[in-house]
Design goal:
Layout: E1 18-22, H1 25-28, H2 39-44, H3 62-75, E2 80-84, H4 87-90, H5 99-114, E3 118-124, H6 130-133, H7 142-158, E4 164-169, H8 171-179, H9 191-215, E5 220-227, E6 230-232, H10 238-258, H11 280-284, E7 290-295, E8 299-304, E9 308-311, H12 328-340, E10 346-350, H13 367-385, E11 390-396, E12 415-418, E13 423-426, H14 428-441
Parallel strand pairs: 1-2, 1-11, 2-3, 3-4, 4-5, 5-7, 6-8, 7-10, 10-11
Antiparallel strand pairs: 8-9, 12-13
The structure holds beta-D-fucopyranose (FCB).
Keywords: Carbohydrate metabolism, Cellulose degradation, Glycosidase, Hydrolase, Polysaccharide degradation
Protein name: Beta-glucosidase
Catalytic activity: Hydrolysis of terminal, non-reducing beta-D-glucosyl residues with release of beta-D-glucose
């Protein structure tokens, strides 16, 4: 199949359903001489951390190419663009505003609004200023309060230019990958760090939400969480899968709705416990205008005597980054979250696939990625049919970019980037996405 199709009567075929593309500052911008260093600059400079030893110094050079990139976004016919703000670009070390950095984003936001593209702004997509990491980063409770100041600065500067604010992108990745297993910046390793960092991130989210409610009450304010649903290898492994689910997934959503961490917190040794102050859960559990959900794959677990749970290698089929393609778990995830929590309107803020693209005669015929999108759009539609209140869907990503520890080796774009020439070439998946979106707009 060469196009994306949904049932004619689907909510996702209505003009009110929001389709977008997503990026993040560090992954696309470059332009590093105009901003402070962040933890990803430092991590990239550490030998052995990035698969191709690359960094974000140039990336997609979006900092200089932003106008052409917004033309590109417009040409895809999308309703919305999800971007993130680089904290070290807009705030100086003494907490004053970096006016040049703010002016950059204001130009971007104005250009989007002029084209009727809704800006969905993520305030923190992992690029913590290095000077804050030098004081402990997310292991330091103070960082949550620094985040609050940053949110106040940004919201004052941006005024009414933004459609939606998300406080954090995927606190699981920041906390677990960054401070527990160390495969992401800042690369700290230790079971005693993960849940402490997670608690300060969630606190930052709550404090940020309070600022958003005050300074920006008319935007859709919320958080973006990622989920990798956990399945048992056999029925006997159900407890192991549930434990993993609590540890990796529920840990980040339950406090927001239930003012508590999952019960497995009682099984963690004291050294791994977060430091919870009185009133923290009241701050964390701010009402949300929306919940952003990022989904790529599922994981399978078996019981392991020592480690409680062990993750199995993903079975085929997988994408180029090794993640299993298993779309029905997307539907299961959405219906399960809907059953467990009183969800606000949901936006799928990321979904997509890394594939080994080849440019042939100036074209990328990425039927594998197109197939991934087709199956996952249908999975979202199934969840809507089962009552989940989903208002939008963002493809990850607008264009190929710096894929964190994988560097530039993995391509997630619906637009191909030739890093030598910085040319952008819309892949066939991108053309199909455009056609899905624009045919819907043309409906009577
Ligand atoms: C998510 C990140 C995003 C991108 C995708 C592939 O975890 O939010 O920046 O790297 O994975």
């Amino acid at each position: 199949m060469n196009k994306l199709e949904l049932p004619a009567n689907s909510v996702m075929q209505q003009p009110s359903f929001v389709y977008g593309v997503a990026t993040a500052s560090f992954q696309i911008e470059g332009g590093i001489s105009d901003r402070l260093a962040c933890i990803w600059d430092t991590f990239c400079a550490t030998q052995g951390k990035i698969a191709d030893s690359s960094n974000g110094a140039i990336a997609c050079n979006h900092y200089n190419n932003w106008q052409a990139d917004i033309d590109l976004i417009e040409s895809l016919g999308v309703d919305a663009y999800r971007l993130s703000i680089s904290w070290p670009r807009v705030m100086n070390e003494d907490s004053t505003a970096n006016e040049k950095g703010l002016a950059f984003y204001i130009k971007v936001l104005d250009a989007l609004n002029a084209r009727n593209i809704k800006p969905f702004v993520t305030l923190y997509h992992w690029d913590l200023p290095q000077h804050l990491e030098d004081k402990g980063g997310w292991l330091n409770r103070e960082t949550a309060y620094k985040f609050k100041d940053y949110v106040a600065l940004v919201t004052k500067a941006f005024g009414d230019r933004v459609h939606s604010y998300a406080t954090l992108n995927e606190p699981f990745c920041s906390a677990y990958l960054g401070y527990e297993v160390g495969v992401h910046a800042p690369g700290k390793v230790g079971k005693e760090y993960g849940k402490k960092a997670a608690h300060h991130l969630l606190l930052a989210h709550g404090l940020g939400m309070q600022v958003l409610q005050k300074n920006s009450p008319h935007t859709l304010n919320g958080i973006v969480l990622n989920f990798t649903p956990c399945y048992p290898e056999t029925p006997a492994d159900k407890a192991a899968a549930n434990y993993a689910d609590d540890y990796f997934n529920q840990w980040y959503i339950k406090p927001i709705f239930d003012k508590a961490y999952p019960d497995i917190i009682n099984q963690l040794p004291a050294s791994q416990q977060p430091e919870i102050h009185e009133g923290d859960f009241d701050i964390i559990a701010q009402p949300l205008d929306f919940l952003g959900i990022n989904f790529y794959t599922r994981a399978i677990y078996r019981t392991d005597e020592q480690a409680v749970f062990e993750q199995l290698p993903p079975p085929a089929p997988t994408t180029d980054i090794g993640w299993e393609i298993y779309p029905s778990s997307f539907t299961d995830l959405l219906t399960d979250l809907h059953a467990r929590y009183p969800l606000p309107p949901v936006y799928i803020t990321e979904n997509g696939a890394a594939m080994a693209d080849t440019l042939v005669d100036g074209k990328v015929n990425d039927l594998d990625r197109l197939d991934y999108y087709q199956q996952h759009l249908v999975a979202v539609n199934h969840a809507i049919e089962q009552g989940v209140n989903i208002h939008g869907y963002f493809a990850w990503s607008l264009m190929d970019n710096f894929e964190w520890a994988e560097g530039y080796l993995k391509r997630f774009g619906i637009v191909y980037v030739d890093y030598e020439s910085q040319a952008r070439i819309i892949k066939n998946s991108g053309l199909a996405y455009r056609d899905l979106i624009t045919s819907r707009k043309n409906k009577p």
